[in-house]
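Running co-folding for calcium ion.
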Amino acid sequence: MNLGGMVKRSLATILVLALAIILAGKTGIGATPETSTIQFRDVTQLAGIRFVHNNGAFGKKFLPETMGPGVAFIDYDNDGWPDIFLVNGMDWPGHAQKHSTPKLYHNNHNGTFTDVTHKAGLDVEMFGLGVAVGDYDNDGYDDLFVTAYGQGHLFHNNGNGTFTDVTQKAGLLGPREFSSSAAWVDYDKDGNLDLVVGNYVQWTPETDLYCTLDGKNKSYCTPESYKGTSVRLWHNRGKGTFEDVTQKAGLGDPTSKTLGVAVLDFDNDGWPDLLFSNDTQPNKLYRNNGNGTFTEKAVVAGIAFSEDGVARAGMGVDAADYDHSGFPSLLITNFSNQMLSLYHNEGKGLFVDEAMATSMRTFSASKRT
Ligand SMILES: [Ca+2]
Ligand SMILES: [Ca+2]
Ligand SMILES: [Ca+2]
Ligand SMILES: [Ca+2]
């Protein structure tokens, strides 16, 4: 999504679809002018994308293995053609069998892509989960922040086709967390992009719990088994360094189990607000007070819980003004047995979940034809 050109973010579920759309568009494959129905064909192989996700699974059923990786479009060489960055996991320490890294694919302007990961200096092993693209140092080249189990990474785009891991230099080394998604946003409007990072739960291989569905075999535990973790807000001081302002900004909340981050100005006051979709915990909507602090509004806005008052398993999230009302609405994907949430922004700080009504309309229309 994009808010005033200042925010770029990505999530796997949304952008994998977007990737298919862009690839189909660039190659001309999948266009069916003779019908009114849009059709898509998987052109991954044709485009030269050979990426394989490694979730590190070796039989212990560690929780991070359940996560898909993020992907982002980034025109890292400013040639006007979107390139692709794919996040990857890795084998667990002590069980290393293969070398797996994120991948950067350069857009060849002809529907194909070339793996430039090594040349770009991005063949760094990590248990990556998400990615956010933004030019945090205003040098005209988009940079990458990769969320990960353990330690997120900030890669500075050097402007010559290479990146440098500046995580430590930027002051972003922190406690080992399970960061899932991130977004760049200039929340204080000082001209420098700040970084907001969603964290999932408190989990380590050492504190891994035994869960089972059949009483015999270990299964993946649900997030209820683990304590949550606060999101983090990193203020960009300029000159390439960041400070943790989570508590000062009022975003500290150890109960959250965040999987999705969205930036939206839900009340149209010109200050970007933050939405965190939480897995089995209430979603959070933080209104930007315009003075460096935020106030949590999800319950009064009607988006913390489902209509029957249950915290759902919020995962992906995006915000857009889909009905041209002048206010951004929200789409939150939930777990597989739960309906997604289409929170229509009614203005006046209130959202109404229209997912049920919308799907009923679709169903009715299909029955008529
Ligand atoms: Ca490019
Ligand atoms: Ca930059
Ligand atoms: Ca800023
Ligand atoms: Ca606002």
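Result summary
The radius of gyration is 21 Å.
Residues 62 and 165 are 27 Å apart (CA to CA).
Job closed.
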